Every structure is written in C-alpha cells, then in structure tokens.
Amino acid sequence: APRAKTGDVISDDRGGEENYLMGLKVEGKRIAIMVDSSASMTDEKLIDVIRRKNGSTAEKKSGPKWIRTKKIIRWLLARIPKDSQVTLISYNNQAENLGGIKWIRPLGPNILQQLYVDIDKLIPEGPTNLQKGLQLTSSLKPTDLYVITDGLPTDGEANYKSLNPFSNCSSLLGSSKTISGECRVKLFRQTLKESAPANTKVNVILLPIEGDPDASNEYWGWTAITGGLLISPAANWP
Length: 238
What we know:
Elements: E1 9-11, E2 19-21, E3 30-36, H1 46-53, H2 57-61, H3 64-77, E4 85-91, E5 95-97, H4 109-121, H5 130-140, E6 144-149, H6 181-195, E7 201-206, H7 215-226, E8 230-231
Parallel strand pairs: 3-4, 3-6, 6-7, 7-8
Antiparallel strand pairs: 1-2, 4-5
C-alpha cells in the first residue's frame, strides 16, 4: 500500500536557519488553505485529547499539536506567491473564512496580521466535518488546495439513512457518539464524492493521531488523483 512521505524534511546549508518540505511548493492562481480545528487537533494521544476536550479554552488552545498547526499555517502563508489569491478556511462542525475575506490579493502585512489575529481566536473543539470545509472551499473554485488535518472525518452533511453503505454506522444515524474506523473511511469517500472541489490540485499535511490507521492511505489516494502530495512531516517541522 502507498505510504505517506514521513520525515520528508530537509534543512538548507545555512546551519538550519530554514526548514522546508521537500517537494511541497505553495503555488497556484487561487490557493485555498483548509485548517482542521476539531478537538483532536490539540494532541497526538487520545487520552490527552480527551483531557483537553474537557478542559478550559486556554488548555485547548495551548495543545502542542494546535501550536504546531498554527506554525504550519504561517509557514504556508509566508510562501504564497505575490500574484496569487489566497483564502484561509477553518473547519470543525462549521466552516468559516478567516480574515472575513473570501479571496485575498495581495497578501500584505496588514491583512496577514488580521489573519494571525483570527487564527489565534480559533478554539480546537468539536467534530471533524470535512464536508463543511469542502463545501465552502468548492464554492470558491480554487486551483490549489492545502489541507492541514490529523485524520479522517467524524461527521458529514449527507442523509446517511438513505445511503446503504452507512446502515451499520450508528454514529452517523444519530444513535451513537463514537464512530468506527470503517465508517470513517466510508464517510471520507462519500464526502469527497459529494463535495471535493473540481479541477483542484490537493496537498495534505497529515499530523499524527492515535487510532486512525486508514487516514494516510485514504488521503494519499485523494491527493494522488489530483497530482498533489500527502506529507506526514517530521516532528521538528516547521
């Protein structure tokens, strides 16, 4: 089976002043960045995710994986080409354009500062509704998409009761609060079928989480058919 490019990080020859991902270029005329802001984006171990989920807003926002996520957003924004438009979207059980702007060009210091303020306001909580994020993104018709996430979705927008493959997925039918790995795979594939943006190159930065072994193969399949990359970055990046 295909695997994510783990540890695909190199340092330049200036003593490690700048780390960058081999092969991951930020490019395109209309660049969408989608950031998973669900509860699992705080930590890697499930016990720590649950602890923060039940903790204060400050505890959620200080999770090591969330701090890393915000650094990755800054890394991507710093590399937006001058003649490109960019949109930054966060998603959990809702999706929103950060900065209050659908398309930004040029990405000047004032707008960057406003984006940073909005990023710092985000609270990583709630389910992972990839479909909400993709519906908003698809409506903007990006040429290139960069997704920062840690796993497969746990929620979606379809009428699952009418879809035969979901008959055993009680969480999607409203009768359970937990979702199996098999149902997450089905949910992911249905989400892409219904809401993935057309004619868009997709790159995914997949951060680690316990208990989601199918995520790398599923995201790899999505990125591969669009000509993009799936990267599971080394722990010290960015």
